[in-house]
Amino acid sequence: MADPAFAVAAVDRDQPYLSGLNPEQKRAVLATEGPVLVLAGAGTGKTRVLTTRLAHLVASGKTTPFGLLAVTFTNKAAREMAERVGALLGRPTEGMWIGTFHAIAARILRRHAELVGLKSTFTILDTDDQIRLVKQVLEAHDIDEKRWPARLVLSLIERWKDRGLGPDMVPREDDQSLGPRRVVDLYRAYQERLLTLNAADFSDLLLHCLRLFTAHPDVLGEYQNRFRYILVDEYQDSNVAQHLWLRLLAQAHRNLACVGDDDQSIYGWRGAEVGNILRFERDFAGAEVIRLERNYRSTGHILGAAAGLIAHNAGRLGKTLWTEGDAGEKVTIRGVWDETEEARQVGEEIEAGHRAGAALASFAILVRTGAQTRAFEERLITIAVPYRVVGGLRFYERQEIRDAIAYLRVIAQPDDDLAFERIYNTPRRGLGDSALAVLHTIGRARVCSLSRAAEIVVETDELSPQRRTSLRRLVESFRRWRGAAESIPAAEVAALVLEESGYTAMLQADKSPTAPGRLENLQELVRAVAEFARLAEFLEHVSLVMDAATGNGADMVNIMTVHGAKGLEFHTVFLPGWEDGIFPHQMALDEKGNAGLEEERRLAHVALTRAKVRARLYFAGRRLVHGQWQTNLPSRFLAELPAEHVERQDSFGQTLGNAGRPNHGMRRGDHHRVIAAPAPIAYQLNPAADGFLPGNRVFHQKFGYGRVRAAEGNRLDIVFDKAGEKKVMAEFVQKA
DNA sequence: CCACATAATCTTTTT
DNA sequence: GATTATGTGG
Question: Are the beta carbons of A404 and A503 closer than 8 angstroms?
Fold first, then answer.
């Protein structure tokens, strides 16, 4: 069964790729059969183990690349893994499935979409689309958005989805009432809407897969047989749905290796379930557990500080990182007056280090929240030190990029109403809410997309002449662009669309300082499209590979959130804002109590272990938050760092011991007592749309009374008493 | 329907 | 402080 070429490699008993691995790492590579859990602490060579293991499975002839599935959380991790495995094997990883949970689930789903009620061309929605969809659902159910913001409702829905629960599986006690409705009702409506839009959100990729696998054992069997060996990275970040998905896929061969670190689980707010990793041995009977504890990254003091901190968490699997390296410098703590001083001190140290010959890229400033980057950016600009903000505003999330993509989506997927709504009046073409309402009415009546409704309505007199002309131009443009998409390369289509839609012209006319940058971004988008032959392929890439061009190799200081820094390492790490309320963040404390605090502590642990040689912690006495001064106490985490590994370096001399300080977190959002609103006054459609005959007297909301001259299906030719002859949809008139 | 002004809410982290 | 919802006048 194995490819002979690989069998030859298996004869090579040397297995040179194993050299240089420590005993535990080697065990993790060679334990190929049965369930395996590799607990890999920070800096213990996890990636190396993962890639070597994959290479070993192939080189030893246990399977061909075809039988391998490697799952990661980020696209970056997937790319790196593919590259490194390819390098180890000396050949491309063709046939091997390496990708994120979502990308792999999408790939499977595209093949069997019909079995779950989707067309294989389904669109993958981003958060923006999701919010707009929830808003529509809220509106349709007449729920006050002030009391129940779309974001909140969506997060409730997402939490269920993360747990693998469809609308019919939600336990009643988990549901909440929103006045006349329950959240589950909205969830159900939301899912129905997604199906009619032929769309899936991110979580759906997995949920639909789960349904597919359970309802169609033959399909499941196909994948079970194929994937002889399954490998999962960052297992501590997996949610319940992902866990179920893996379990189904691994059932046949039971060769499932999960690599992770419970101490680095920092995505609980996104539905990640630490329990997955804590329960692994119970879920997969006979699992072998391997601990990687030897750290190759950080000095002794840094590891000691991190270990002392994380020891305050209960419910760990327990690992102790150790190193043979030097103790190095102690971790420093500095109290500063405010965030300006904080930024100034960091800036000075970077400048001094750089003068002494250190590369700028060896410095990282890791913040708890994105808003904290500003002070540092301002400071670094002032002292002319180049920096990059990693993961800030991502390329594909910029407004102009999403607009452009929305155009492409409507071309490739005429049913994509959300994309259509986004751009049908961008740039301005005199089409507002009222015109949109007409399209919606037709869309509902005819069970068709807005795009299609637009095509229909321009043949009638439903809209005022200016608006009809405007809409007709748009409809004709889309027709033309769709034709073009058949014959010319995708990138040319994109360029054509931006030009002909007037989008480029709109930005050129825009005098705001951001406009030139936006135009450049659009050019970059066209370049990105050029890497794909077909528009659909590009769109798939966009929705799944949301990470932007990672800053080129230029020598710059790195500024990013701690979340964004996971998996990275730097010589010197600055950790500002270690204050209660900031880090740990108040919201984490308020919403999830002790569990939230523990997750924050793991986050702090991740932050510290990014440093190879030097870690500098800061806390400020006061700080401008939302334009208001806020005074904070030093983070309780500071007091948890073992004294022998840290050094105070300021003259404030405040004590850091503040353990046991009660947390009187204020609860936000007092959303009880929802007032029942009256039923909506819906525009009543004439249910008997057909059946109009020439000569019938009819009444129209806008045009008044008239007489049918000709009828063709739903399209009527009516001579109105006052308004004259008009073409009108039957849905809009009543028999008089 | 659009442009401009004012008001409110926001920021925890992201595939 | 900045983005976004709402209101007013053309």
Answer: yes
pLDDT at A444: 85
Long-range contacts of A446-453 (CB under 8 A, 24+ apart): A446/A714, A446/A731, A449/A414, A449/A415, A449/A416, A449/A417, A449/A420, A450/A417, A450/A420, A450/A421, A450/A424, A451/A410, A451/A414, A451/A415, A451/A416, A451/A417, A451/A420, A451/A475, A451/A478, A452/A414
First vs last C-alpha separation in chain A: 76
One-letter amino acid at A359 equals A
All protein residues with a CB under 7 A from any atom of strand C: A 145, 626-627
pLDDT band at residue A651, thresholds of 50, 70 and 90? low
What digits encode the pLDDT tens for the residues A44-55?
999 999 999 999
Give the distance, in angstroms, between residue A591 CA and nucleotide B9 C1'.
19
Give the pTM: 0.83
Strands (E), A637-692: 646-648
The length of chain A, given as a count of residues = 736
Comparing CA positions, the residue from A469, A470, A446 lying closest to residue A456 is A446
Sequence-ordered list of residues with C-beta below 8 angstroms from that of A142, at least 6 positions apart, any chain: A180, A677, A679, A680
Name the CATH topology of A124-197: Arc Repressor Mutant, subunit A (1.10.10)
Nucleotide with minimal C1' distance from the CA of A626 is C1
As a whole number of angstroms, the distance between CA A718 and CA A709 comes to 5
Task: Give yes or no for residue A257 having a pLDDT over 80.
Answer: yes
List residues of A with catalytic annotation: 46-47, 233-234, 264, 610
**How far apart are the C-alpha atoms of A457 and A573, rounded to whole Å?**
60
On the question of pLDDT at A110 being above 50, the answer is yes
Of residues A26 and A14, the one with the higher pLDDT is: A26
Average pLDDT over residues A698-720: 74
Among candidates A104, A116, A100, A126, which has minimal Cα distance to A166?
A116
CATH label, A16-108+207-292, candidates 1.10.3720.10, 3.30.540.10, 3.30.70.1730, 3.40.50.300: 3.40.50.300
- A560 phi and psi angles, rounded to 5 deg: -160, 170
Q: For A295-394+555-655, CATH number?
A: 3.40.50.300
Q: Which nucleotide is nearest, taking the CA of residue A627 and each C1'? A: C1
Of A458, A454, A450, give the one whose Cα is nearest residue A728. A458
CB A674 within 8 A of CB A144: yes
What is the pLDDT at residue A5? Answer: 45
pLDDT higher for A218 or A461? A218
Taking C1' of B12 and every protein CA, the nearest residue is A369
